[in-house]
Amino acid sequence: xxxxxxxxxxxxxxxxxxxxxxxxxNVLQTAPTGRLDRMVRWNSNNHNCFVLNxxxxxxxxxxxxxxxxxxxxxxGLFITGFCGHLASxxxxxxxxxxxxxxxxLLAIDTGIDEMVCYSDSMxxxxxxxxxxxxxxxxxxxxxxxxxxxxxxxxxxxxxxxxGNQCADWLAKQGATSTEEFSIYTTSPNELLPLxxxxxxxxxxxxx
Length: 207
Description:
alpha/beta; 207 residues; two-stranded antiparallel ribbon; six-stranded mixed beta sheet; globular; Nucleotidyltransferase, domain 5; 6 helices
């Protein structure tokens, strides 16, 4: 807030506080007595449909919010991808919600009727899957996402960042792009190794 001269509404601060409290509770309730290695992979729920992975980030100088996402079929074949940036804000929540929204619109434009959505933003998932205050800063965007999910029966789930690496790579591309929104009809060559790892089910240690 200080570095970017931003002012946050009480509603937004309240949601951040609640999210932090819930995260702490989850950790305390599930903390193992000894070290427990957790392995993570893409599409860990084995959904047999198209899969959208979405991610947001805040990078660059000056700092700006960036987003990226990728749509694949159930075996990991690249269908389409996208990235972009929000020049008017550096709020990570805005980026996370925007990439989900953009990904849903792209899926609909592509003619996809059955798809599962993944995001590693727990706060975004909570806002989308629960009742949200009409006074929330992003109430309109959140409601638009809910309407799109309901209209096509697209479920949305939280995933760990180790299973969201392709979307993370595309979000970082948004940070270096001069375009506010770009669509990939074929995968960038640099992204292919990550796509291949996901497709063959490579397991990653949860950091």
